């Protein structure tokens, strides 16, 4: 295990089981449709690629990069578009795939944005939910698992761009980010 990890919350096997359960629900709910999967970069990349393969049905994929975090472990409250979609969302059924919902600001902003762009439907699939962090009222339609109010990394999630490639999700040792504050 990586030395900066305090403890592992979810092994790759745990994540695969969570993903399979979500994929079954999504496959049933979107049967006969062609949803546009919107992967929120970079944190959701691993989850999205595993999820769409587990769904194994009609889906298109696009990417959006938004930022509310910088390199800190606390939300700045601002949401910025760093990379917009290539695809038009007008009239489309959207499935936003996110790694973790914390304050809810990112998804609140994105839902509002896609509504103004005339999406037909908007649903959210989040691997993790951190309900204690919530500042604005937003909920994911598909939630993999609920996590405590600790900073988690791995399986796409980073601290200062590190740890994204860990195959598991773990709690980062607070000393790692306290040292830099
Ligand atoms: P909001 O606060 O808008 O934030 O719901 C969602 C984004 O914040 C990041 N985030 C985390 N990233 N470990 C991370 O690596 C965490 O514990 C964590 N909590 C929030 C994440 O990028 C998410 O997309
Ligand atoms: Mg993110």
TrEMBL record:
Domain (Phosphoribosyltransferase) ranges: 15-159
Pathway entry: Purine metabolism; IMP biosynthesis via salvage pathway; IMP from hypoxanthine: step 1/1; Purine metabolism; GMP biosynthesis via salvage pathway; GMP from guanine: step 1/1
Reactions mediated catalytically: GMP + diphosphate = guanine + 5-phospho-alpha-D-ribose 1-diphosphate; IMP + diphosphate = hypoxanthine + 5-phospho-alpha-D-ribose 1-diphosphate
Principal location class: cytoplasm
SUPFAM superfamilies found in the cross-reference section: PRTase-like
GO molecular function, one term: glycosyltransferase activity
Keywords, comma-separated and alphabetical: Cytoplasm, Glycosyltransferase, Magnesium, Metal-binding, Nucleotide-binding, Purine salvage, Transferase
Cellular location(s): Cytoplasm
Superkingdom of source: Bacteria
EC number annotated for this UniProt entry: 2.4.2.8
CDD domains: PRTases_typeI
Cross-referenced Pfam families: Pribosyltran (PF00156)
Cofactor(s) required, per the database record: Mg(2+)
Its job: Purine salvage pathway enzyme that catalyzes the transfer of the ribosyl-5-phosphate group from 5-phospho-alpha-D-ribose 1-diphosphate (PRPP) to the N9 position of the 6-oxopurines hypoxanthine and guanine to form the corresponding ribonucleotides IMP (inosine 5'-monophosphate) and GMP (guanosine 5'-monophosphate), with the release of PPi.
Family named by the database record: Belongs to the purine/pyrimidine phosphoribosyltransferase family.
NCBIfam families tied to this protein: HGPRTase (TIGR01203)
Record-linked PANTHER family: HYPOXANTHINE PHOSPHORIBOSYLTRANSFERASE (PTHR43340:SF1), HYPOXANTHINE-GUANINE PHOSPHORIBOSYLTRANSFERASE (PTHR43340)
Name under which the protein is recorded: Hypoxanthine phosphoribosyltransferase
Species name: Lacticaseibacillus mingshuiensis
Organism phylogeny: Bacteria, Bacillati, Bacillota, Bacilli, Lactobacillales
């Amino acid at each position: 295990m990586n030395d900066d990890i305090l403890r592992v919350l979810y092994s790759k096997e745990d994540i695969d089981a969570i993903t399979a359960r979500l994929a079954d629900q999504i496959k049933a709910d979107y049967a006969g449709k062609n949803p546009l999967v919107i992967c929120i970069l970079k944190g959701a990349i691993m989850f999205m690629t595993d999820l769409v393969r587990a769904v194994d049905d009609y889906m298109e994929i696009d990417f959006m990069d938004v930022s509310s975090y910088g390199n800190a472990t606390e939300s700045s409250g601002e949401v910025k578009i760093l990379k917009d979609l290539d695809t038009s969302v007008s009239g489309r059924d959207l499935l936003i795939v996110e790694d973790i919902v914390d304050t809810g600001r990112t998804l609140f902003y994105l839902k509002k944005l896609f509504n103004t762009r005339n999406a037909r439907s908007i649903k959210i699939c989040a691997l993790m939910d951190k309900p204690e962090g919530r500042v604005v009222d937003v909920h994911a339609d598909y939630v993999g698992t609920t996590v405590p109010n600790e900073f988690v990394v791995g399986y796409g999630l980073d601290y200062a761009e590190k740890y994204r490639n860990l195959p598991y999700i773990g709690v980062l040792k607070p000393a790692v980010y306290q040292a830099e504050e």
